[in-house]
Amino acid sequence: MEDKLKIKISIADRVYPLTIQPSQEEGLRKAAKKIEAMIKQFEQNYAVRDKQDVLAMCALQFAAQTEQKNIDKSSEMIEAEEKLRSLNELLQQHLTS
């Protein structure tokens, strides 16, 4: 069993101590960097007075990206299933002929 790793992640000028699996570290650090970059972008592009507003905008952006990926995956799966059904029908027709 892997030992837990204690790290500190900084987001919006706050430090968050976390105890994680070592395999999670890279993903968490990358996510924190993306959040920081997004915060900077929102602060530069919009007159935002409160960090909480910026963080809410970041959360919305990330959630929207996740939902869009799920929607895209779903439509890709439906398309793949339709193609497989068509291929199966062609094979059945060929095998019964």
TrEMBL record:
Presence of the UniProt keyword Coiled coil in the record: yes
InterPro entries: Cell_div_ZapA-like, Cell_div_ZapA-like_sf
Coiled-coil spans in chain: 25-97
Signal sequence annotation: none
Keywords, alphabetical: Cell cycle, Cell division, Coiled coil
Listed name of the protein: Cell division protein ZapA
Organism: Christiangramia crocea
UniProt keyword annotation of Coiled coil present: yes
GO terms for biological process, alphabetical: cell division
